[in-house]
Amino acid sequence: MEKTLVICKPDAVERGLVGEIIGRLERKGLAILASELRLLDAEQLERHYFEHTEKPFFGDLVAFMSRSPVMLLLVVGPEGTVSVVRTLMGSTDPCQASPGTIRGDFGLTVTENLVHGSDSVESAQREAHLFFPDLELEI
User: Residue 68 contacts by C-beta under 8 Å, 6 or more apart in sequence?
Assistant: First the structure.
């Protein structure tokens, strides 16, 4: 089994789209292993987005991701789950995302694009341990 982290970002929570996002994951055959509605702080976001800390958009990213709660999801499925989730999410830019994807159907801007999904099995392991440190995870 393969696990990945999905974050329903503040815009998804604010717009009431968390159920739709979870439903799409579950209808695809994936399962939610753990979930938590949580307000993220700057320290957590700096660890999560460490590769972006020196980029000019980092401050805006932290402000957006900490403005209201997010829904953290640990998703599990067969080998290839990371890739399946990324396909379900669609392109980062909702204007470029295909219809039928989460971002293609509901996304409004590149900045507020509803969901984050781990980009590799290695990232999924790091991110899962960051947000669900008390779970015994073998990814």
Answer: 10, 13, 14, 39
